[in-house]
Amino acid sequence: MEPAYALLSSAISMVGGHGAALAYGDTFKKLGYEIAPLVGAAAATFGLISGVMIGGPLGRRLIEKNNLKPDNSENFDTSVENINASSEKKLSSLDIIKNVVVILICMAIGSLVSKQIGKLIKMDFPTYVGAMFVAVIVRNVNEKTKFYRFDYPLVDGIGDVMLNLYLSLALMTLKLWELSDLFGGVMIVLACQIIFMIVIAYFVIFRILGSNYDAAVMCAGLCGHGLGATPSAIVNMTAINEKYGMSRKAMMIVPIVGAFLVDIIYQPVTIWFIKTFVQ
């Protein structure tokens, strides 16, 4: 099995999700791996389903085996929902245009950043990565300066619509029958990753995080994100919270780590593997 396809069957697709799978798949395609986007999309889809299927049961097992209870004494002044809450004011067309313009500016600057990074590493670099980092900088600077008030539900909605359109257009062009020759190898890589995720979450991460209720919920989220995407992590944690009680720490930490912090390690490591084993 070619190293490029092995990489696309593992963390690139499972941690990065469909967006990263198709973006890096296009990069590999330019290097001569014609069915790379197909492999990435298939792996990302499999991971998305697997993450939801194993995350909830693993979290439930940890909670029931260790008789864990939520810490009702938690006192957070803010939460992810409060931070991203809408002003509940009726948005005018000007407000919508302002938010869209900021997104477009981040995309434009991000594409230039990605091109420069691509020149430095001498390979095509996914443009969404540069745009993501620029957007993170813009939001964090804005949180300090209060230069502009974003309507985060609107921005999230625009992002969801654009991602769904992108995935729909990309997946419509995939020819699944071309994956037949690589099916066995891809499934072995995917199975190994699932087994590793279960073992590391159950026996290692749970203990590192404190072996408490919050740790169990975060392990369920880890399975969702480590095999699928951040929304899968939130689905897993929400299901557990509804049954056993709220873990505010998990709902605060996991989305932040999954949405941004993981990329601090994920992107450089991915580039290193590509440079070492593919090019």
UniProtKB/TrEMBL annotation:
One of its GO terms (molecular function) is glutamate:sodium symporter activity. The keyword Nuclease does not apply. Pfam families: Glt_symporter. Keywords: Membrane, Transmembrane, Transmembrane helix. One of its GO terms (biological process) is L-glutamate transmembrane transport. One of its GO terms (cellular component) is membrane. The chain crosses the membrane at residues 35-59, 96-113, 125-142, 154-177, 183-205, 253-274. InterPro entries: GltS (IPR004445). This is Sodium/glutamate symporter. It comes from Peptoanaerobacter stomatis.
